[in-house]
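On clarity, I found the account of how folds are encoded harder to follow than it need be. Since the whole study asks how a given chain folds, the encoding of that fold should be made plain. For the editor and my fellow referees, an illustration may be useful. An entry of this sort, consisting of the sequence and the corresponding backbone structure tokens, reads as follows:

:::
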Amino acid sequence: MNYNFYLVDDDVSVLSILTKIIVNNNLGDVIGKSTDGEDAIEAIKRMRPDIVLVDLLLPKKDGITVVSEVKRHLPDMPFIMISEVYAKEMVSKAYNSGIELFINKPINVIEVINVIKRVDEKMKMKKVIDSFQTAFQNIRTLNGDDQGHEPEPYKNPRIENARTLLGQLGILSEAGTKDILNMLEFVFEQNDLSKRGLFDHKLSDLYDYVSRKYEKERGEQVNDKAIEQRIRRTIGQALSNIAELGLHDYEHHVFEQYAALLFDLREVRKEMDYIKKSSRNRGKISIKKFIFGLIEEVN
């Protein structure tokens, strides 16, 4: 953990204590301090720290006002509020202004460390979720469209559903995603009338279809092995993304819905352990399980 902190409290001894806790416990650096709310607002907007610790009761402008005014300009700025006020209405008002958590006065070292670690976890989880959401914006990369136009929708709505699902997994811009969607398109075209035999296809046949499709449509020669490797890397990234999500929010709907459907849960746990650095072994993927799980989900 290595964040830049800004501290706001009218008690200089509290500022000193918080600084020592942050620095001595390797939580990050303190890049600025204020003893009143008015100065703090301008300094925070200018310096843009990673995390702000702000007292509730301040001269000129109180902590809630500081949070509210900064959030209008920097809506994602995380605030931790310091207070010895326990009135429910004030606590509720503080959370409504956009704070993450409270630290109670008098300052307790263990509480400060634990609260900052919890905010760190929330920030990491937000980054993971944001990566899934921003994946939808990478469709231009996926389709090789330098003009940034929206891609033409697939004729089969199940392929569109699959594209949405892959976006939720954060892999929409990965090179192998186009290959996966083309494989699904072939499967559904072959079995669209009978609704049978969806799971009877061999992966080698699907690779071969994609290879021939690229050669016919673009004059691009891509051998089956290259397609398989692209897909393997893409699914590997999906495994890493969903393991990261599971670490921060085990009950997130994306994790609950797809972890077991598209992957072996034991391998997801291995990947989670690898990310936590409690194991040197990464989780393994099964292309067949992923592809057929995808077919099952969108069919």
